[in-house]
Amino acid sequence: MQLDRDASATDLGLRPTVWVDGHLYADARDARVGATDHGLVVGDGVFEALKVTPAGAFALRRHLDRLERSARAMGLPRPDRGVIATAVDAVLADRSWAHGKVRITWTGGDGPLGSQAAYGVPTLVVAATAAEVPPAGTDVVTAPWRRNEHGALTGVKSTSYGENVRGLAFAREHDCGETVFLNTAGKVCEGTGTNVFCVFGREVVTPPLASGALAGITRELLLEWADVTERDLTLEEALGADEVFLTSSLRDVQLVERWDGYAFTGLGMVTAQLAGVFAERSGADLDP
C-alpha cells in the first residue's frame, strides 16, 4: 500500500518560496518571523492550505472566506484579501513546478510569553512549495483520541495543530495515510486534514459540521456539485459502507481502501464518478 505524504520541497530538489509581511524570499532559510510571535508562542493564529495546479492556486476566494471566519473566531483582525492575493501571485510567479501547495498563515504577531492578547500588529506569511500528486487510494486508522465537537476551536483552522500532528503520526505508525477521529458522542467526525464520506448503495453521506468537522473547501464544493446527505455516522455504520472516501484541498477525492485493516468490498465506482465530477468542475474554474 502506497502511503500518502506531502512531498517536501527538498524531496523535489526545491525549497519553498516565502513572503513575510511584504518581503519575498526565494529561499525559505532567509525568511524570519519574530521569536515572540504569538503564532509560535501560543498558537494564536489561523491558516489555509491551497492546492496549486498548472493554472494557479485553486479556490482562493473560498479559502480566504474561511480564513476570515477563523480569524474572527480567534479574535484576530480581518486579514487584507488584496495583500494576500498579491502575496500568492508573488510566491507562484517564478515557480518551476506544476503541482504544489500554497500556505497562508495569519498570526497575532508579537505578543507576551503567555495567553494574553497579542500586541496588535498581525503577521502574514505566504509560502509555496512543490508537492507530489497524492495516490488515488489510501488506508485509514481510527484515532484513540476524540474530537471535542463543543470546543472553542471547533470549526476553526487554527495553527494550534498539535492534535493533528499527533494523529497523522499515529497513521504512519499503523502504515496508513490518514487517521479518522470520532467525536465525544462516538460519531465519525473527520481526519487530521480531511473530511470523510461514506457510500451506501447510491447514497453518499458525510458527517454534518455539528459533528465537529471542519468545513472543508472540497467538501463544500462536492455538496454543491453532487447529491450528498449530511447526517451522523457511527464507526460501525462507516465500516459497513460499500465505499468510503476522503476529501481535502490537497487530496481532492481519495478512495479509502482499508479502515482499521478492514477492506471494503465495493469497487469504488461511486467514488471514481465523484472524483471525475470534481476534476472536471474544478479544472474548468480555478476559483469556483
UniProtKB/TrEMBL annotation:
Its cofactor is pyridoxal 5'-phosphate. GO terms for molecular function: transaminase activity. It comes from the Bacteria. InterPro entries: Aminotrans_IV, Aminotrans_IV_CS, Aminotransferase-like, BCAT-like_C, BCAT-like_N, Class-IV_PLP-Dep_Aminotrnsfr. PANTHER family: AMINO-ACID AMINOTRANSFERASE, AMINODEOXYCHORISMATE LYASE. Keywords: Aminotransferase, Pyridoxal phosphate, Transferase. SUPFAM superfamilies: D-aminoacid aminotransferase-like PLP-dependent enzymes. One of its GO terms (biological process) is carboxylic acid biosynthetic process. It comes from Microlunatus sagamiharensis. This is Branched-chain amino acid aminotransferase. One of its GO terms (cellular component) is cytosol. Belongs to the class-IV pyridoxal-phosphate-dependent aminotransferase family. The keyword Transferase applies. The keyword Transferase applies.
